[in-house]
Amino acid sequence: MIKEMRLKANAKINLGLDVLRRREDGYHDLRMIMQTVTLHDVLELTLTKAEGIRVRTNLGFLPVNEDNLVYKAAALLLKEFPVSCGVFIDLKKHIPVAAGLAGGSADAAAVLIGLNRMLELGLSREELMERGVKIGADVPYCILKGTALAEGIGEKLTVLPAMPACSILLVKPPVHVSTKYVYTHLHVEELTEHPDIDAQVEALGRGDLGALAAKMGNVLETVTVSAHPVIAQIREQLCSLGARNAMMSGSGPTVFGIFDDAAAAADAFGRLRSDGANQVILTEVYNP
């Protein structure tokens, strides 16, 4: 067994997010294009002689018990596979929390991948993804990484041609968005516009960043922007600073802008960061 391992947990953005219908189980059928970015958390896993799970983070407000997805991921594998050891998880967060960037899901995915290797469980990526969906709908994608079409509640994944390299500017305003609130207040039957996911898939096939960006859309903005107009303001600001397009990621509140000019992205980063009100991060496309 491997006693210690250091892993990166990458954030994601949604290049397109459509909601097709509300299911009888209360969940929604989605159709999304997901993309991994270089922004990441760092996890250090250590196997311990004492059984049980211990979690430490660099953010005092985060739970370190079963309410943390990294704890749930470790517990899932340690319960299924009888091993005579425990695990200590040291989590250093760099991905903004509750931001629509799947930080918690990425951390859980990293724990599943890490423990599978450390404990020599022999699970395939597909088998890890099957277990990951029990923790959260985004976890299977965070195990897969790269550019993918996500359907169902997000767990049905199809690998797509890699998104062309570009700079991505993330801007998170100081507002709290509840994913449950957004989906509860989303009236799917009243939506008049839907993002053209098929056109985005075609653009990826051609490696056409401009066409991909032009077709970006997120139906959850119909709820979130009404509650937090600052999201629309940031979107407009990013476009005025040279972004090909800008959109809210997931249920928000983070807005991202796609820049094909690295210098323009760096300039926009400096301008937005000087404002001081928002959390601003410059990152790039990541394809494993």
Task: Provide a compact summary of the structure.
It contains ten helices and eleven strands.
Keyphrases for this structure?
288 residues, alpha+beta, Ribosomal Protein S5, domain 2, Alpha-Beta Plaits, 2 domains, four-stranded antiparallel beta sheet, 10 helices, 11 strands, 33% helix
Low-confidence stretches: none
- The computed structural class is alpha+beta
Largest sheet composition: 7 strands, mixed
Number of helices: 10
Strand content: 25-35%
Reported CATH architecture of the largest domain: 2-Layer Sandwich
Number of strands: 11
CATH T-level topology of the largest domain: Ribosomal Protein S5, domain 2
Overall 3D geometry? globular
Gyration radius, to the nearest Å?
A: 19 Å
Mean pLDDT: 94
The tally of structural domains comes to 2
Assigned CATH class of the largest domain:
Alpha Beta
Oligomer: single chain
Order of helices and strands: EEEHEHHHEEEHHHEHHEEHE
State the distance separating the first and last CA atoms.
Answer: 25 Å
> Which percent range fits the helix content?
25-40%
